[in-house]
Amino acid sequence: MAVLQQELRQELTVGEAADLLARALPGRRVEILQGRLIVTPPPDGSHALSLTWLVEEFAGAGARKAGLRYVQGIGLWLPSLPDDFAVPDFSVVDEDFRDALVRKNCYAANVFRLVVEVTSSNWSDDLYTKVECYAEAGIPAYLIADRKHGEVLLYNSPAEGKYPAPLRYKRGQSVPVPESVGVSLELSVDTLLDGDD
Hints:
Blueprint: H1 2-8, H2 14-24, E1 29-33, E2 36-40, H3 45-60, E3 68-72, E4 75-77, E5 85-86, E6 90-94, E7 101-103, E8 106-107, E9 112-118, H4 123-137, E10 141-146, E11 151-156, E12 167-169, E13 174-176, E14 186-188, H5 189-194
Parallel strand pairs: 4-8, 9-10
Antiparallel strand pairs: 1-2, 3-6, 4-5, 6-9, 7-8, 10-11, 11-12, 13-14
């Protein structure tokens, strides 16, 4: 930590500070959203189980045969400011997404079909800041498992850098994955919020 304190005394760009924090805080997610440095704690068990379940669901729906990949925690380069990037919890991307590497292990927004965030202690970033960032980046579908408020929100079809009002799903319901993603699938709200048993 002393090395980090010493380096922070120097004048750093937000991108350099993000790199330092990522090295100093293994297991935490470091992002830059609208020029603001965000550090997220590691996921809890229910959060992790929700993501594992999503992998199984997309595999069962034939996403690979449809020319898609489903991945956890890869970087998404954002157009808002020069150093901005996000690290969605789960993404459905084009099969050749690795050809769209921008930098810092982040990929161009045009290869993302769906991003999913499962809220943690920094839930407001998922519900507000990332809605703006993902819409501006043109992400076709953004799904939020909002554990703070016990619902799932689905934003899709951004136009002119903004999403229309989200579709809201309550416990006991299922969320249809938008056709733009490329697979036919319905996701249980309860499992998105709680993880599978």
